[in-house]
Amino acid sequence: LIQETKATFYPGRDAGRAGYAFAAASNLFPKGSILEVTNLENNRKVKLIVNDDGFFRRQIRFGSGASLKLKSYEGPRGVGIDLNPEAARTLGMMQSGIVNVRVIRIR
C-alpha cells in the first residue's frame, strides 16, 4: 500500500520511551505497521513503526440520547502521519514542521 499524505512531528517527546528510535502515530495504518516514509521535498527516507494512534483515533461524541454519534478525528490539515522527533530530523523537516510524504507499508 502506497499513500501520499502530510506529515507532522510531535516535539519534545522522547522516542526511546516507546522502545523505538523511529516511530509514528497514524490514522492511515494500524499499530505495528512497518513503514518507509519519504519526504517528497528532499527525497530523504526513514523506516519506522506505527506504535500509536495519537490524536487521530480519538472519538468525538456529539448529540445526546438516541441521537448520540461518534466520529473519528482525522487530524489537522490533512495530516496522515505524526512522526517522532528522530524520524522528523532524519527526514529534514524540523524547520518546516509539516511536509508532503509518500508512505509505503512494508509490513
Task: Describe the fold and architecture.
The protein has one helix at 85-91; strands at residues 2-9, 23-26, 34-39, 45-52, 59-62, 69-72, 79-83, 98-105. It is mostly beta strands and 107 residues long. The strands form two sheets. Strands 1-7-2-4-3-8 form a six-stranded mixed β-barrel. The longest helix has 7 residues, at 85-91. The chain is globular, with a radius of gyration of 15 Å.
How many helical stretches?
Answer: 1
Q: Report strand %.
A: 35-45%
Helix content: under 10%
The biggest sheet amounts to: 6 strands, mixed, barrel
Mean pLDDT: 78
Radius of gyration: 15 Å
Tell how many strands the DSSP assignment holds. Answer: 8
N-to-C terminal Cα separation, in Å? 10 Å
Class from helix and strand fractions: mainly beta
- N-to-C series of helices and strands: EEEEEEEHE
Query: What is the 3D shape?
Result: globular
Q: Are there runs of 5+ residues with pLDDT below 50, and where?
A: 57-64, 67-73
Spatial order of the strands forming the largest sheet: 1-7-2-4-3-8
Task: Offer a few descriptive terms.
107 residues; mainly beta; six-stranded mixed barrel; two-stranded antiparallel sheet; 1 helix; 7% helix; globular
